[in-house]
Amino acid sequence: MTGYAWRYRRNVLLALGSSLGGMAVMALVPLVTKMIIDDVVVEHRRDMAPLIALLIGAALAVYAMTYIRRYYGGRLALDVQHDLRTDMFRSLSRLDGRRQDELSTGQVVGRGTSDLQLIQGLLFMLPMMIGNVLLFVISLAVMVWLSPLLTLVALAMAPALWYVADRSRKRLFPATWYAQGQAAAVAGVVDGAVTGVRVVKGFGQEEQETGKLREAGRRLFAGRMRTVRLNSRYTPALQAVPSLAQVAMLALGGWMATRGQITLGTFVAFSTYLAQLVGPVRMLTMVLTVGQQARAGVERVLELVDAEPSLRERPDAHELPADAPADVEFVSATFGYDPERPVLKDLSLRIEPGETVAVVGASGSGKSTVSLLLPRFYDVSGGAVRVGGHDVRDLTLDSLRAAIGLVPEDSFLFSDTVRANIAYGVPDATEEQIRTAARAAQADGFISALPDGYDTEVGEQGLTLSGGQRQRIALARAILTDPRLLLLDDATSAVDARVEHEIHEALRGVMAGRTTLLIAHRRSTLALADRIAVLDGGRLSDFGTHDELQERSALYRRLLTDPDELGGVERDPVAELARDNGHAQENGRGPDRGRAAGNGHAPGGEHGASTRSARAVRSARTAAAESGGRDLEAELDAEAEMESEPVSAKRRVVDGITPELWRRAGDRSGSSAAEVAGAAGPDGSRPTAAAAAGPGIAGALAGMPATPELLAKVAALPPATDTPDVDEEQAVRPEREYGLRRLLRGFGRPLLFALLLLAVDAGAGLLLPVLIRHGIDDGVQRLALGAVWAASVLALLVVLAQWAAQIASTRMMGRTGERILYNLRVKIFAQLQRLGLDYYERELTGRIMTRMTTDVDALSTFLQTGLVTAVVSVFTFFGILIALVVLDLQLALVVLATLPLLVVGTVFFRRQSVKAYELARERVSAVNADLQENVAGMRVVQAFRREHLGVRRFTERSDGYRRARVRGQWLISVYFPFVQLLSSVAAAAVLLVGAGRVNGGTLTAGALVAYLLYIELFFAPVQQLSQVFDGYQQATVSLRRIQELLREPTSTALAARPREVRSLRGEIVFDDVSFRYATEDPASGESGEALSGVRLRIPAGQTVAFVGETGAGKSTLVKLVARYYDPTSGAVRVDGTDLRELDLAGYRHRLGVVPQEPYLFPGTVRDAIAYGRPDATDAEVEAAARAVGAHDMVASLDGGYLHEVSERGRNLSAGQRQLIALARAELVAPDVLLLDEATAALDLATEGLVNQATDRLAGRRTTLVVAHRLTTAARADRVVVMDHGRVVEDGTHEELLAAGGRYAKLWRTFAGEPETAGV
């Protein structure tokens, strides 16, 4: 940290120098007061005017020094915070794939928000703290000069302070480290629930997520309460030491004064010095509290700053020569994400310059891994990867990645305009170049139709666009870079057949003469390839042309053989339909039924005849598969037997589970899953590995640096067992209005009791000057030692009462504050669960995270450290004013004369500072959003070599936040020294007036001394308020932001009396449904409607496929059925009831949803499958996986069903994620199944297994399928063709082919007959 601060040595020197100078002046002021009392008031030896002028001059000097210290010290803290933030971001942008896989986005955001805020707060306090050390030293020197004996009192205070502070440091650090780990765990829960919101809502699991938040929040509460209890031991003790020293000084000093060993002025000076030390000691306690938290924060932030990629560029790395041939070679390449379990094994593959090679294989066979090794996101553990004859490890990363254009499988887009996303890799591209790339990717048409065309903001991760639209923009982004090597990882999986055909035609021109690697699942993609590599279990099974592989590779034929084709669906079955027309007529399916739809009636009549006949056709297909495909199946079985045993061979099934797949890696005991993974929690989730480490450590270890010594210190702490005991049912209820009163509702009594304790604390502090006055007037001046002893004993009792009150108030305020914050976290999170998807599409995840992290942390900091100090300071401030009036009204009027200036200055400052803090809060939200988005999209950033530009943009945003805070810091630097100046002027005026009155006999010397002590005490509360005001302003703005979130109306509001949903028959009716996304601009002149006048009736148990061009409204229909949104007009009805009248959670529990991009939460595979039914047994989980064909894939994973799934499922392939998502949907036994292109990332063979499984289950549920693979549509009972938000055709597969309309054209394009489709 010293190195960071020393970058701004000018600010360091100014802040420290002014702090030392100001404190030195303050240390000498009591000497001037002594001279006035001794030489002017008592002995009349000096003139008053020069000494008063000296006091005023000292006050002005302190004002100037304090302004410099505050302003430049504040700038220093903000500059260091900015540097740490940008260095952390820069370090993150360097991390390779392996290090990125270890990251938790929630942890990173936590370090970039809470930890950096703590560090900034500590740095802001340090200059004053160092100045206070000088004040202590100078005060001690002056006190030795005045009276060595009395100085022993102060010296006795030093070791006591040191002992308490040292004990505090040793125990508080591990406690705060643990608590901050829990805070990061809370951030992780929020990040998962926000980024996976579609899955949460799709399965109606808002309560499960709220349960996770409550569990993490309780652990955080317990951890922080342990810290509060430790604070209550040490903080009051630190504050009691100076007060005990004052009592000792009263007794010893009074005794010495009565014996004539010291003068009254010396006695007053000593009292003043000790009073001056109260403020610094209070600050010391605050610094210790914040310092321990900041120390943990520094370690966590510096761990990221110092993180080194496991993959490094060699010192002698050279650029890829511009004339190097664009060939690619894998030479015996071996690689595993876990080095113990290689994904690729001894892979040797050569791609010639200008050649296009496709890679095919089953899910998890290593296809995407091949594409990740080429741009060197990972390094092989054995063998080599070469480009242009050069080992990629010998090349500079910049030159290697500049030669590669990547279209990743997840098509990540940034929250920017369409134009900026396409030009991401070439920021200076011209408009024509951007449009040319868009046209090549078949994206220009839909982009031009967007409300703002190429200037349309796409929202976070591009989620305001359909999956196909995102893929085309990602493809245009890669094409624009004009790479020598093109990597397409299933780049057209989310587009329809016609668009895919057009993209392929355009790609032929783009790929001409360009080396291209395709990761392929669709047969149509393989037509682009010159040769095809077949992967099997990470090994190269075969390599050749399509014709060669068809002839010699049974595995290839299996992967690329469409199960529907085996089942009798021919490439153009119109002739077959004509031959069997009579049979079809018998089943109510004449060709005349395939018509342009829109009348809202299901083909086949009211009673679902079409459903029955469709099932008959499916049964016929299955029978044909069993006969017509027998030879192929026999061949595949023989090949499988020769090559290796199936993964499930020889596995016993016991009580519905395969025991070998329910053991953690390294466990051979045969323990059940529950025994190994730990019992499920209240929310159904299982503990993580960290949670299993032992009580008190759960959840704290994730993503945190820890040494054995630190863990031992944490384990040695008292157990963290406190519970919040709040009304959680009340907390989760929605609030129309939410302010400070609502925030504190239900906590009135403990708050009132805590405030009473604080009043006792403040009152005790105010009694000491009164007792000192009596000691002087009744004891010192009358030489009555008994009065001195009496005042001293009373003062001792007051200090002990104050100590006890501080212990109790610290615990009471700490517990009450943490209960309030727990209640607030639950309330905010529950509100987030209520809000519709439109809110998440408008708001960046980073901004939402800011509400739950930075804003709640601001309230936490204020409630934990600031509020107590503020309340005591306010009580002290007004108590002093009352005491001044009671002691002497005339002198009180002198002091009150400064109040008008104080009021005017305060009103001005408050108005200006609120503006500055609101601007700062807005900008820090943008910074957090940028951080979160870049962490999520880091692979795209690196692939397009935008690390430096990304760092520059992040730095600019962080600097904007810093500048907004500097403005607020300037206001603070002007205002608080001004208040201090007024207090000093008031003290000088009191001395001037009071000295005359003492001489005139209308005021006692004791009263004047008490007055001076009270005015000296004015410095302490004002100084302390200045420290907490920064936190108060941040807390005020944060509360306002939280209010805005809590007042946000939900777009899918619950009915006043929702109908309970226990089960559904599954009849779905779209009744004249129109819908417009909230992100569209109605004033743009475009219709903007995603759906328009849709009328459909889907009988219960029917399987309906929605097809059409990308952006036609297919996914929107499915989202309306899931009630992610409500229609703009019309209604969606299930079993005759408007969805808006149903209990939303109960309804969604009857749905099974598989989204376009399956999101998985961290945990085990078992947890991922059981997400929709956390209470499912292990046997039920395994049965669901078997039902959708995912069991063998799970069996191939290390640990089987207990294999750890990383954040978002990043350690699994897209196909593996989709299989788990299908099993997740199957487990809930849904009445309505919603599949949004649910098999896009699967090879055809695996898709066939899934389809056969879903066919067996289709009669039990209504199924809506968004289909781009038309073989998926052909399996359905009914096909609905969408175009521009309208239903244009509706019928069976055969009927629509016979009708020769849009569907027939799509089919012919899909079948490889583009000329007949008029393309």
UniProtKB/TrEMBL annotation:
CDD domains for the chain: ABC_6TM_Rv0194_D1_like, ABC_6TM_Rv0194_D2_like
InterPro entries documented for this protein: AAA+_ATPase, ABC1_TM_dom, ABC1_TM_sf, ABC_transporter-like_ATP-bd, ABC_transporter-like_CS, P-loop_NTPase, Type_1_exporter
SUPFAM superfamilies, sorted: ABC transporter transmembrane region, P-loop containing nucleoside triphosphate hydrolases
Transmembrane segments: 12-37, 49-68, 121-143, 149-165, 234-256, 751-772, 784-805, 861-885, 891-909, 970-995, 1001-1019
Key words of the record: ATP-binding, Membrane, Nucleotide-binding, Transmembrane, Transmembrane helix
Domain ABC transporter: 328-562, 1068-1309
Locations listed in the record: Cell membrane
Keyword Thylakoid attributed: no
GO molecular function annotations of the record: ATP binding
Biased composition, class Low complexity, residue ranges: 610-627, 669-692
Biased composition (Acidic residues): 634-644
Sequence segments annotated as region (Disordered): 577-692
Membrane topology of this protein: Multi-pass membrane protein
Record domain ABC transmembrane type-1: where: 13-293, 752-1034
Gene3D superfamilies: ABC transporter type 1, transmembrane domain, P-loop containing nucleotide triphosphate hydrolases
UniProt entry tagged with the keyword Zinc: no
PANTHER family given in the database record: ATP-BINDING CASSETTE SUB-FAMILY B MEMBER 10, MITOCHONDRIAL (PTHR43394:SF1), ATP-DEPENDENT PERMEASE MDL1, MITOCHONDRIAL (PTHR43394)
Name assigned to this protein: ABC transporter ATP-binding protein
Species for this entry: Streptomyces lycii
